[in-house]
Amino acid sequence: MSMSNPLLSPKTRVTWGYGIAILSVSSALLIAQWPLLHLETAPVSLFLCAVMVTALLGGVGPGLLATALSSLAFDYYFLPPIYSLAAKSGEIPRLVIFTASALFVGLLSAAQRSATESLKRARDDLNGTVQELQRSNAALQAESLERKHAEEALREAQADLARVSRVTTMGELTASLAHEVNQPIAAAVTNANTCLRWLTRDHPDLEEAREAASRIVKDSTRAAEIIGRIRLLFKKGTPQRELVDVNEVVREMIVLLRGEATRQNILVGTKLEADLPQIMGDRVQLQQVLMNLMLNGIEAMKDVDGKRELVIKSRRAENEEVLVSVSDTGAGLPVQHSDQIFKAFFTTKLEGTGMGLSISRSIVESHGGRLWAAENSPRGASFCFSLPTKSEAHE
Amino acid sequence: MTRADAPTVFVIDDDAGVRASIQGLLKSAGLRCESFESAEEFLRRNRPDGPSCLVLDVSLPGVNGPGLSARVG
Fold first, then answer.
1. Do B25 and A186 touch (CB under 8 A)?
2. A245-394: what fold?
3. Which pLDDT value is given to residue A177?
């Protein structure tokens, strides 16, 4: 039931309320006086109804007016002497009780109207709040989508940067990589010559020729494998998530960087724990981290007299993590800048870009791990990184 | 077949494939051959009769080719 018409102005609504008061009391009087109905003796209920309806529709003011009008009409038309506002002294209690009842009914109805209106206002407020929330939610969803797009773009940019850095590093390693490819090819050529020598003898030795030929197969396969690994590092592609054997990644990188280490007269050693759990990650990116750390170690030992040793260790750590460390016997961490080495563009090398460690750290962190540096004993530096074996790596 | 009195050639190379290929070639030429992974390993096992011929890789981990050559004289 609509208590007030929202299209009406407050002033019109008040006038309308008082109109209802007059109309309802008049109607009650008319019905009570209607000769055919014979209600002259029971007008009280009719007037109370008129007061109730007025108070419900118009509120306290019109309700009071209806009460006053009803009391006057009741007094004038129904209390002896009839058709007079003066009441017999014996009828005064009836008039007082009637007026009190009308007042009570009117106030009760007005209170109900007020409560109903409060509820309606609360409901409207709630609707408004819900709409506001819906709008905020839509805005948040749009923002979230935008953020997701930005994050994707950032990831792509980071992957591109990592690749550019990788390709640049590989470019700098061309001489030693070429040497690594050349070794098995040179061996294959020698073995081919040997094979021919055994075959072109006066009495060809087929067994020796067969052995030489199988060495050619082995050498060629090895050359193809090395080229394949190099090509993988140059390949452009979105980061993959696959099960990776960290020890295998270490061994592959040693194959590629052994020439560079030897050139700098550096011994490369490993201490790899057997049966390490595999980790979920991008093989090429992890190779890149190892390449950066190993090349940093090699670079750090360039001007060092005495023992030059690069040791790569892997082991199972607490919290279901795999821990890898790359230790050198070089100059050690820059004392004043030990906290800055992971920042982009920071470098202590003459020709460094300052991106290697920064990229490595972001790769390790994107795999849910950590990368940090420590002093190596008795000298040099150790770079360690941990990778979770169980949890799903976050992008 | 390699004769017992054939000269011995010592091959020092850190690459197993290269070592095997040179060893095979020398065998086909009727020469005896012994191979070593590093200069240090060669120096440890160098016998009193000494090498007739030394085939050396220049770039070796630890003591390198020219370094070993100077030491052997």
1. no
2. Heat Shock Protein 90 (3.30.565)
3. 84
